[in-house]
Design a protein that fits this description.
Length: 97
């Protein structure tokens, strides 16, 4: 089980697309820093709104709030810093994109 941490926007990087290409069934995806922008880019919504990603998407709440971004009808759990740390402990590895 890997927690994939996306920290760059797909508007300027291919990190989200590469992550989705290698993501396994039990893996989770956490969006931080500019990676939170992926959650509001319309072309990413169909990629992220799939049954296999249900309950596997997370976002650092402070990064989302700092950018004043809406989440377009995605099932994404917002995490505090404490919850972020706890989440990393639930996975065997983390991989930052």
């Amino acid at each position: 089980m890997i927690l994939h941490i996306i920290r760059q926007s797909s508007a300027s990087h291919q990190s989200l697309h590469q992550c989705l290409k290698y993501k396994q069934t039990d893996d989770g995806i956490l969006f931080i820093s500019d990676g939170v922008l992926n959650l509001c880019l319309q072309h990413n919504i169909p990629l992220l709104k799939t049954p296999e990603l249900s309950n596997k998407l997370f976002v650092l709440e402070s990064d989302l709030t700092a950018r004043n971004l809406p989440i377009h009808s995605l099932d994404v759990k917002q995490l505090s810093y404490q919850e972020f740390v706890e989440l990393t402990l639930q996975y065997e590895k983390t991989l930052t994109w």
